[in-house]
Amino acid sequence: MGVSSFGYILPKTKQEALMVLNETGEKGRIVAGSTNILPDIRARKITGCILVDISGLRELKGIEAAGETVTVGSLTTISELLQSEIIARDAKVLWQACRRFADPLVRNRATIGGNIANASPAADGVVPLLALEATVNVESQAAGKREIPLTEFFTGPGKSVLQPGELITSVSFAKTTAMKGAFIKFGLRKAMAISLASIGIVLGFSGDTITQARIALGALAPTPLRARETENYLSGKQISDEVMARASELITTEVKPISDVRASQAYRWHLTGVLFRRAIEAALA
């Protein structure tokens, strides 16, 4: 089945898009940047669906800061995030991840909403958002609006709690202007590398003491995850060789890596501790 055999609808407003998604149900597939779905269509992994193209919906684009909250429209591209003074200032971990995201061509097309909806364990946009404790805002004609903590959004590789007819409209998170953050990834190629492992951290300090630690990991389990035990261990401590050694051991117990054509399970376990140390060093630099 070729691309031309698919249904295609181009709604002009968000409300029209919600109506179309409600009517098409499970057959409706949202497209915008199409960096993930088009390769799947060409490979015939997806067949017989109706493509709902929301790329022209300006109301789903943009970055806003109101009070202590940053809200990013779901159609905001990775390039737009990278160019944003708000993101560079108030969400350093996300800005750093955008710098490492694929190449300029993909960054110009890929959207933050699409990166979330794709639900890949290795999604570079998701890991920093987990460290930012982001909330995904979704809407449907049938059920209206709901807010989903990103930590509760993913259910497995390529799977999420998003229901047929629902549209991700934005993602929001609290500013981390006064906190330290870093994003580190490791892949086999510099530009278009799919992460073998990635980490995003956000650290709050009072003097030299860590008051809050948020650590998110990608490509090391069936879904991106938070390293809660390591976070709890670091809270209330000062960085030292002893603390780093213990935390590096602890974080490897929180991941569930697999072996595949890109790397072995053992190598990914090793990478977890290495990237954790690098992320801490980068955040403190």
UniProtKB/TrEMBL annotation:
Molecular-function GO term, any one: FAD binding
EC number: 1.2.7.4
One Pfam family from the record: FAD_binding_5
Transmembrane segments: none
Keywords: FAD, Flavoprotein, Oxidoreductase
FAD-binding PCMH-type domain: residues covered: 1-178
SUPFAM superfamilies tied to this protein: CO dehydrogenase flavoprotein C-terminal domain-like, FAD-binding/transporter-associated domain-like
Presence of the UniProt keyword Membrane in the record: no
Listed name of the protein: Carbon monoxide dehydrogenase medium chain
Organism: Neomoorella stamsii
Lineage: Bacteria, Bacillati, Bacillota, Clostridia, Neomoorellales
Gene: cutM_4
